[in-house]
Amino acid sequence: MKKLLGVMVLSLLWCSTSYANIIMQDLIDALVETKKPKSIEVANNLKSTGDNDKSYDLVIRKANLNIKDAKNIATAIKKIDQNKGPQLGTISMSFNEDLKDEGVITILNHIPLTTSVIAFVECGITDKAGQAIIDWAAKTNNLNGIYIEGNDFSKDMEKKFEKLRADNPRLTVLSEWASEEFKEMVKKSFN
Question: Is the pTM for the entire model greater than 0.85?
């Protein structure tokens, strides 16, 4: 009788959890495991992903994420893609200064090429991640926006971003702050 009751309870739990939630669970877990309030908030929002959702956005700004967090999140994103889950539309991990080159490159190596917007504003990155962003952009035709202001790029890297803009007129590439006022407005507006 206990065995039958256990099977019934598991069946009910299985039925109440959508397939999309099961596919998203690794990402939800990775976000919760950071133990950072902003990531936990994003994880809770992802729980509402339904079976009919074809895409999702991952916006984790100002969450104090580090390289270890990036690696766990990247692995979970890749699993969603491998399991034919919802497509990642936008990824914004801006204002996470401790991501550094390694964290951003790890994310780029795991996100699907169908992603249309990437944002790593003020993530403590240098030319190394800048080149990885350019290389990643060259592999996709789906990219609409790259937002990477407030990082430590050389003049040579800025020239490469200018070439990327010129070669892809429909692609928005913001690699430098337009003005101090714009920078302050963005920092106040985007959480």
Answer: yes
